[in-house]
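Hi, here's the filled form for the chain we discussed.

Project: internal
Contact: R.S.
Residues: 231
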Amino acid sequence: MTVAAAQPAIVAGDLAANVAAHADIVRASGARLIVFPEMSLTGYVLDAPTVAADDPVLAPLIAACAESDAVALVGAPLDWSGAERIGVLAVTGAGARPVYAKMCLGDTEPDRFIAGPRPGVITVDGWRVGIGVCKDTRILEHLRETRDEGIDLYVAGLVHRPDELGELATRARRIALKIGVPVVFAAYAGPTGAFPATSGGSGIWDADGVLITQAGAEAGAVVSAEVGPTD
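And the returned structure, exactly as it came back:
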């Protein structure tokens, strides 16, 4: 399967512009599955309004997925199952639906958001794709529970400071070697919320933890690769 990790340029408070940026990346990537950073539709802004899966503003992204036969995993604050959560929407040509809520909240996130109760797994072309968000990727309980769902690929959206760039590779290698699956990390580039700068470095690692491709620090970059099933 061809997968992509994207780090779009995000405009805080402009959902329509951010949806358009996501749609452009979906069309340009040529990938079947495209992963975006944590809260990518709004930016990592903890007081951003929630995004509804049926909001008409998502229409350009849905159309791009339809034209490209793609699945986009996008981040947003969601009002889901009776609580506000840091969530992930799976967007296809058929629409958008919530598929995961961040299990391991950090810093001031619990002041507003409720942690997700369980792992998130979607199936794409027979691949079981496990989903994480930022802090999840270093919490063993989350990783064990996701592994136990029987996944073929692990993906996550993250936000890190520039001096934390190396943490992406450390976590990706650990996950690949512990679970035995390829890993796709999509990280912010450029400013977002309280972060005046972020790391970029979105990348794809194979099931042996070997880096296949990685973006630089520039906003708007996207990297893609074909990953194969593990033995």
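Let me know if anything looks off before we file it.
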